Amino acid sequence: xxxxxxxxxxxxxxxxxxxxxxxxxxxxxxxxxxxxxxxxxxxxxxxxxxxxxxxxxxxxxxxxxxxxxxxxxxxxxxxxxxxxxxxxxxxxxxxxxxxxxxxxxxxxxxxxxxxxxxxxxxxxxxxxxxxxxxxxxxxxxxxxxxxxxxxxxxxxxxxxxxxxxxxxxxxxxxxxxxxxxxxxxxxxxxxxxxxxxxxxxxxxxxxxxxxxxxxxxxxxxxxxxxxxxxxxxxxxxxxxxxxxxxxxxxxxxxxxxxxxxxxxxxxxxxxxxxxxxxxxxxxxxxxxxxxxxxxxxxxxxxxxxxxxxxxxxxxxxxxxxxxxxxxxxxxxxxxxx
Length: 337
Prior knowledge:
Elements: H1 5-13, H2 30-38, E1 43-47, E2 50-53, E3 58-61, E4 83-88, H3 94-100, E5 104-108, E6 113-116, E7 119-122, H4 126-129, H5 134-147, H6 151-158, H7 162-168, E8 176-179, E9 182-185, H8 188-197, E10 205-210, H9 215-224, E11 228-230, H10 232-237, E12 247-250, E13 263-264, E14 272-276, H11 281-284, H12 293-301, H13 307-332
Parallel strand pairs: 3-4, 4-5, 12-14
Antiparallel strand pairs: 1-2, 2-3, 5-6, 6-7, 8-9, 10-13, 10-14, 11-12
Helix pairs in contact: 5-6, 5-8, 6-7, 8-12, 8-13, 12-13
């Protein structure tokens, strides 16, 4: 028997949930505890998989499969804990479980979001921060942070009616204020960071493709077809040091990738991801061949477990801060005084 075989034997006989954290399953729940405290649900760790909340309730800390605590007929399994706490960073289909079972608590520590009692109770979200017009709200925020401008100028830059800008502007609240030359950010760095961190994603439909040519050749061809580029390739175009070995292309209508010589591929193998976005501001607000750096940062952030992507996101954030400050200076001091 190899030195590691005994570990696999135990895992074959027991479920992950029945094993103590360790031997590769340990997780850091610091962010989870911070998010819970910010949501008004402070808790302490009693044992490795148990939390005790200040109101006296206990919570079973489960990862990665919360459905293991639910019977096949949909009823919660018998247990001693009052709540089941799911720490994690991928929301996806887990939220449907949280809405269905009020005793499930989901915590996205990375983004400091908490769901409990069937609804979101803490953190940024399109419902809580951006109203029903969240796509427009984030498009406006990105535009004001970098360009400022009046209502009409913002509408023209994003490609939406001016009335839509007026309707959604209150969602930005004290983040923005009006000046004689148009709207400005109350704190440019803070507005940039909010637009980066609170953005719920472009949504839509994604497909993955692969072709054995250079990424530059693939990008050039997709640009000619009307695509708007993002991902690592676009980050490098912005001057951020990252290997440009991956491309996300946004389209209003899906091109015939097979006719272009592409083959369907897995996410890992793909050289190009084609996205028909739910947030069409990704397309209309683009400058040149690439979508704005906010969207590119979001695309990279979604894959932030890769260290190079995390560095690229931080690089784009610093670039956005610089661009926002420079553009502001040029607006208010066009003569350089």
